[in-house]
Amino acid sequence: MDNLSALNIFVVVNNAGSFTQAGKHLGISASAVSKSISRFEQRLGVRLFHRSTRTLMLTTEGVVFLRRCRQILNEIESAEMELVELKSIPKGRLRISLPSVGTKFMSVLGEFARQYPMINLDIDYSDNLVDIIKGDFDAVIRTGNPKSSGLTARRIGESRRVIVGAPHYFNGISLPVHPEELLQHKCLRYRFPHNGKLDSWPFQLTDFPYDNVLPMNMVANSLDPLISFVEQGFGLACLPEMVLYEQINSGKLITVLDDYLTDPMVFHIVWPSSRFLSPKVRVFIDFIVDNLFQSLAREA
């Protein structure tokens, strides 16, 4: 910072034409200006000004050095202006991670992109647990409650889980009215990719030990194949209702055992804790909290 201060004083002295006028501009005494220039010359090992009682002129070395000093100070001013702009205008790459149900978020993200055209979305789809810091993510959307002390989270909303099947799957088969009856059905199960465990079907009003005995006629670590196989009538699956609004409303899929499923999935948006939140991250968080589940509800 001392070097930058000396550069600035040198340029101001040249522009002002005297130590006295430069001192008035800088708010310091002419003597302080003169001493600063002398120390600077000593450090550089060259004389920057020819001095007389009446005139102050640049030396040959001073002329060359002035051109570079102006370039440096102009770059610093430009950098400061860029920082000021970044603090006020949301723009740049925004790296986000969404769970597999995030395919249903596209209309909302599209609206976000329209409102903030200077933000470039970099989207990762994964049900794996991601390291937000090491993965260089600006924000992630996940279910459950974040446990890391280095992260900040806001609740977005929730979606109940439903057990669904295609109408033609039930041809000649009774609809189950109690979880125990699932033992007589084909069950399509979800496996968590990060730990290999099967997802529990969230029955809350029964002691039935469903996790150990539910059939596993198909297992997948992504929702898309489960949805596809359910629609084709290969069995029943327990899935977030938010990804099935269209199929349920159109009658393509029907729900069963609704009274037993009372544990909703809670979604949070999570980002690295920081005292200073960049404009692009701040507007994304606010937009998702204000619009994501409201938009999904309207589409339903």
How are the secondary structure elements laid out?
Blueprint: H1 2-16, H2 19-26, H3 30-44, E1 49-51, E2 56-58, H4 60-88, E3 92-98, H5 106-115, E4 119-125, E5 139-143, E6 151-159, E7 161-165, E8 187-190, H6 210-213, E9 218-220, H7 223-231, E10 236-240, H8 245-250, E11 254-256, E12 265-272, H9 279-299
Parallel strand pairs: 3-4, 3-5, 8-9, 8-10
Antiparallel strand pairs: 1-2, 5-12, 6-12, 7-10, 7-11
Helix pairs in contact: 1-2, 1-3, 1-4, 2-3, 5-9
Question: How would you characterize this protein structure?
Answer:
The protein contains nine helices and twelve strands. The chain has helices spanning 2-16, 19-26, 30-44, 60-88, 106-115, 210-213, 223-231, 245-250, 279-299; strands at residues 49-51, 56-58, 92-98, 119-125, 139-143, 151-159, 161-165, 187-190, 218-220, 236-240, 254-256, 265-272. The strands form three sheets. The protein has a five-stranded mixed beta sheet with strand order 4-3-5-12-6, covered by helices on one side. Helix 5 (106-115) links the parallel strand 3 (92-98) and strand 4. The mean pLDDT is 85.
